[in-house]
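Milestone 3.1: sequence recovery, worked example.
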């Protein structure tokens, strides 16, 4: 899903990304008078890629925490070992931040990190000269240290480059 918030200097198109706090950001955009543009996950409206006065924002979260969150919410009854094995051996293109790569890194020009959401959103609003209430970072019950070294190494073997690129390093 994507959302638009108009600013005085630039407009913001925000692409929602599951398990990264994006629902809180989307709700804040709508509460500030923004609008929902697309219902499809990770979708941008046609033509938005070439808009020079648009910031395309996307939320990310530590890969390990995203994987633990998916396991907790979606893989009930499956052991964590089995889940990690499944997602690292089956085709899961660019999971867990699929939307970022579906549009290409060239189109996303602002990343909001779950762990620093309030600061990142404040900076984004400042760049666009836009206003909205800052969303509170949603609470999380998962912690990267719930993973074993074997699980961390398996996850890094698949998504290590992305983990390093986004500045998350090891669990």
């Amino acid at each position: 899903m994507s959302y638009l918030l108009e600013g005085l200097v630039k407009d913001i198109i925000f692409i929602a990304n599951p398990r990264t706090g994006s629902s809180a950001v989307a709700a804040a955009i709508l509460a500030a008078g923004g609008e929902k543009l697309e219902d499809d996950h990770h979708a941008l409206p046609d033509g938005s890629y070439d808009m020079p006065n648009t910031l395309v924002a996307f939320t990310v979260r530590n890969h390990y925490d995203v994987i633990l969150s998916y396991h907790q919410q979606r893989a009930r009854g499956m052991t964590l070992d089995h889940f990690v094995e499944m997602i690292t051996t089956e085709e899961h293109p660019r999971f867990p931040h699929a939307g970022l790569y579906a549009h290409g890194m060239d189109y996303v020009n602002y990343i909001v990190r779950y762990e620093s959401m309030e600061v990142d959103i404040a900076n984004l609003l400042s760049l666009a000269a836009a206003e909205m209430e800052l969303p509170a970072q949603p609470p999380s019950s998962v912690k990267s240290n719930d993973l074993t070294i074997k699980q961390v190494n398996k996850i890094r073997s698949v998504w290590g480059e992305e983990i390093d690129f986004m500045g998350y390093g090891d669990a």
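The first helix runs from residue 22 to 31. The chain has a mean pLDDT of 80.
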